[in-house]
UniProtKB/TrEMBL annotation:
One of its GO terms (biological process) is electron transport coupled proton transport. The chain crosses the membrane at residues 48-68, 115-135, 147-167, 261-279, 316-335, 347-366, 378-398, 410-432, 452-470, 477-497, 509-535, 547-566, 586-608, 620-642, 668-687. This is Cytochrome c oxidase cbb3-type subunit 1. The keyword Metal-binding does not apply. GO terms for molecular function: cytochrome-c oxidase activity; heme binding. It comes from the Bacteria. It comes from Flavobacterium segetis. Keywords: Electron transport, Membrane, Respiratory chain, Transmembrane, Transmembrane helix, Transport. InterPro entries: Cyt_c_oxase-like_su1_dom, Cyt_c_oxase-like_su1_sf, Cyt_C_Oxase_1. The keyword Electron transport applies. Gene3D superfamilies: Cytochrome c oxidase-like, subunit I domain.
Length: 722
């Protein structure tokens, strides 16, 4: 009775989605009516319970969807069981191939042997969800108490992950149950065709065999002939129409498999990179919660100052770096047309970078850090281990390129190898504990900050794009010359722009001016690279909607152009005076590191992993990942750019600092919403990665039935005759 009521209420999944969205945005609509209800500080009414109720409602809606899926699958199974099996079996018989017909003929010659049916136990899952109830609160503002808020958050976190686990287990149970039903049907079909009365005659079987092996020869089909399907050209024709709500993605072209040892290495690099993305973004999500509830905890290890450094270092030097290394280990041997020089050194490099990041995150949280350098808070002995991993990798790549069987060195290898050389130089200068005092530390910080972004992350990913974009489009890059122009002009201009972050500082005026000029010069490689990518896409736009990876690449290209132009605009003294040290810079850093680097990494993962494992990612999962990440990035960056501009203007007018902090409240709320969507997209990516790494086998009824028959025939032939 309850299931029928739920089914009636949410008969349309679209209605369920609309209701869920309305419940999700209800608190925000309420906030917009009265700004006195919005507060991000403990001395005012937090109204956190509204947000919590919204999340709980979304959770309940998810459970309802799960129940509907259970009802739908149960009804479908019941309908399938009541369907007349003989009609389905006869349809199978009319579509037999030559090999299967030969099996039937072999069975006929041994018809006195009976088929033994394998009985398989049914696996089921019956989770129980217990809701605890508490008495009504006696204070009206009890939910504004930090202790209550912290307790509710801590209670909900395990419930949220329990829901994810529940969905995973139920989905697995559905799949196992469906396969179990197909196995039973295969056994029934094998028993059905064991009875000669249910089978066509040998003449009819031979006719079916000829149809299945028929191949069209030139000029055999013409308009003048009568439309009689004596050759069996038309098979499995049905009047039923399958209405698709999502466009079918085009599977990748079958490629020769690469060395299994290299495949395993690349998958471990990409798998650990995705793991660090989830961990690093989860830390960032918790820091975002602390913007709303600053006293969510009192542990020094979880203070914003330390967690922010953990977040930035993990997403920079763990997620992005290890992901780039994984793509490089695939691309460099491919374009060199030569095997990787040393698989062993690749594994050592993987261990080094992962070990350094694990220890580095712990030391930062423990308060052991290089506090004077942003994005380089991990102390130099630990980063030295990280650098060893990169050094082993670039030596590996150079030796692989030296063994290439092609005449030229493809542009991808230019970018990739150069990026390793630059990051090792930059890391050495930034981390050695010499010359890091006073103004010298400021100069090194500016050099390190921008060289790491532009000459490591950006440079290497542009090289990755020069390989993967033509590969996914199945066409050559538009212009090799534009690639060379972008390569050398970026080396010329990007290496001098770091100090544009310290305009109006104690740095020499001429050094600031050189940085501004270099920032303007960066328009040359950006325009050259963007033109090259867009012109490569020209004439192939239809492929974007049919691909898993191309939408991510396209977004990365657009953000490469707009984000780089934004960086140039920020470098001028007039704009730097307003935007610098505000949230505008935070938005810009996420546009570059997330909109460009991370989106290109997403595309690279979806382009390479299916080729290595032979398993496609869930189409709906890839779509959810793309849109959650893209929409989340908009919600994150656009409000921060608006709020950062207003904050800078308030500072210029001499307004009290605390007024600018209060003014940023609503914009930080949107930042939290956008960050949460991005974090959810990473959870979807983890699931998609799992599906690509752990392929599931769907049971084919007809194929399984003949497998059973073949096993019985082999058993009968092996038995000694008396």
């Amino acid at each position: 009775m309850i299931f029928k009521t739920i089914n009636r209420l949410f008969k349309s999944k679209l209605q369920l989605v609309i209701i869920t969205l309305c419940l999700f945005f209800q608190p925000f609509i309420g906030f917009s009516q009265n700004d006195t209800d919005i507060s991000f500080f403990p001395n005012k009414s937090i109204q956190f319970i509204d947000l919590l109720i919204t999340v709980v409602l979304i959770t309940v809606a998810s459970i309802v969807v799960l129940l509907l899926k259970l009802i739908s699958n149960t009804n479908k199974t019941a309908n399938d069981q009541t369907e007349h099996q003989k009609s389905k079996f006869k349809e199978y018989i009319t579509n037999l191939n030559a090999a299967e017909i030969d099996v039937i003929k072999s069975k006929r010659s041994n018809s006195n042997k009976r088929l033994s049916v394998v009985i398989i136990g049914l696996l089921y899952l019956s989770p129980q969800i217990i809701f605890a109830q508490t008495g009504p609160a006696k204070r009206e503002d009890i939910f504004s108490e930090p202790g209550i808020v912290i307790t509710l958050v801590l209670i909900f976190i395990p419930l949220f992950f329990a829901l994810i686990y529940l969905v995973s287990k139920v989905t697995t149970s559905f799949r196992n149950y469906n396969n179990f039903q197909k196995l039973k049907e295969a056994e029934a079909f094998a028993e059905f065709i064991s009875d000669d009365e249910n089978l066509p005659s040998d003449t009819e079987l031979e006719e079916i065999k000829q149809k299945s092996t028929f191949e069209v020869v030139p000029n055999e089909i013409s308009a003048g002939k009568k439309s009689h399907d004596s050759k069996g050209l038309l098979k499995n024709v049905t009047s039923e129409t399958n209405y698709r709500f999502f466009a079918t993605k085009r599977p990748p072209i079958k490629r020769p498999k690469i060395d299994p040892a290299l495949t395993k290495l690349v998958l471990w690099f990409l798998g650990t990179a995705v793991f660090w993305l989830f961990v690093g973004s989860s830390v960032g999500e918790y820091v975002g919660i602390k913007f709303i509830v600053p006293d969510a905890d009192t542990y020094s290890w979880l203070s914003i100052g330390r967690l922010r450094a953990v977040h930035t270092n993990l997403v920079f030097w763990a997620w992005a770096t290890i992901g780039i290394m994984g793509l490089g280990y695939y691309i460099v041997p491919m374009v060199s047309n030569a095997p990787l020089n040393s698989i062993k050194n690749g594994w050592i490099a993987l261990i080094c970078v992962n070990f350094a990041m694990f220890v580095g995150a712990i030391t930062i949280m423990a308060g052991i850090n290089n506090g004077g350098g942003e994005y380089r808070e991990i102390i130099w002995p630990i980063m030295a281990i990280w650098a060893v991993g990169l050094l082993l990798t670039v030596i590996n790549f150079i030796k692989t390129i030296a063994k290439r069987t092609t005449t030229e060195i493809y542009i991808s290898n230019w970018f990739i190898v150069a990026s390793y050389i630059f990051i090792l130089i930059v890391a050495f200068i930034a981390y050695i504990p010499m010359g890091q005092d006073g103004i010298g530390e400021t100069i090194v910080q500016g050099y390190y900050m921008h060289q790491a972004v532009g000459m490591w992350f950006m440079f290497s990913m542009l090289g990755v794009l020069y390989y993967l974009l033509p590969q996914q489009l199945n066409k050559p890059i538009y212009s090799y010359s534009l690639g060379v122009l972008a390569f050398w002009s970026q080396i010329l201009f990007y290496t001098v722009i770091g100090t544009h972050h310290f305009v109006f500082s104690a740095l020499p005026w001429w050094l600031q001016t050189v940085a501004i000029v270099g920032s303007v010069g960066m328009l040359i490689p950006v325009v050259a690279g963007t033109t090259n990518y867009i012109m490569t896409l020209r004439g192939s736009w239809s492929k974007v909607s049919n691909s898993y990876s191309l939408p991510f690449f396209f977004v990365g290209i657009i953000y490469y152009f707009t984000g780089s132009f934004q960086g140039t605009a920020e470098a001028f003294r007039s704009t730097n005076l307003i935007w610098h040290f505000t949230d505008f810079t935070i938005a810009h850093s996420h546009i570059t590191m997330y909109g460009i680097i991370t989106f290109l990494l997403f595309g690279g993962i979806y382009a390479i992993v299916p080729r290595l494992t032979g398993k496609e990612p869930p189409q709906l999962g890839v779509g959810a990942h793309f849109w959650l990440a893209l929409i989340g990035l908009q919600f994150y960056t656009i409000p921060l750019m608006i709020g950062g501009t207003l904050k800078g203007l308030m500072w210029a007018e001499g307004a009290p600092f605390i007024d600018s902090v209060v003014m940023m409240g609503p914009y930080w709320l949107w930042r939290a919403i956008g960050g949460t969507l991005m974090w959810l997209s990473h959870i979807v990516l983890v699931y998609n990665m799992y599906k690509m790494l752990q392929p599931t086998v769907d049971v084919d009824v007809k194929e399984k039935a003949f497998e059973i028959i073949n096993q019985n025939l082999e058993t009968n032939l092996a038995e000694p005759k008396i």
